[in-house]
Design a protein that fits this description.
It contains seven helices and four strands. By secondary structure, the protein is of the alpha+beta class. Bound molecules: FE2/S2 (inorganic) cluster (FES). The site of FE2/S2 (inorganic) cluster has 12 residues, from α5.
Length: about 160
Amino acid sequence: MELEVIERIVEKYGSDRTAVMEILIDIQEQKRYLPREALHYLSKKLAVPLTRLYHMATFYEALSLTPLGRCQIHVCTGTACHVRGAARILDQLESSLKIRAGGVTPDLEYGLKTVNCVGACALGPVVQVDGQYHGNMTPLKIERMLQKNGGADQKEVVTCPG
Ligand code: FES
């Protein structure tokens, strides 16, 4: 891990311990996860208990101790989406991306997670891709997107920014 990246982020916030959440988010955006070395460095540099940093890293959905995909796909499995067929949507994506929920593709391009209600129940079942909602999803819609964008690889479910 390049510690210089972490040092630059910490310097950006003037080594202010009250900005620890912002620092963690910046590291997450840069590295796509929070390397353990970074947490140890922050703990010493900002005099923040390591246990607090790990608590934050595991509590907040936006943070992760393992690398996330460049394109994060969330399938809502909340009650409203569940009764409208979220399980079939998840099955389709797991099959197409060849990963299970909670996993990332070997090239770290795509990550797949389930979430419990994204607040768009009327649009269920909902799939969220890098923050954008796609409602009323069906396995056929997923399949069409895959055919349109993915070809043989079938990984380009939707175009992700960046
Ligand atoms: S249950 Fe899926 S958006 Fe609410």
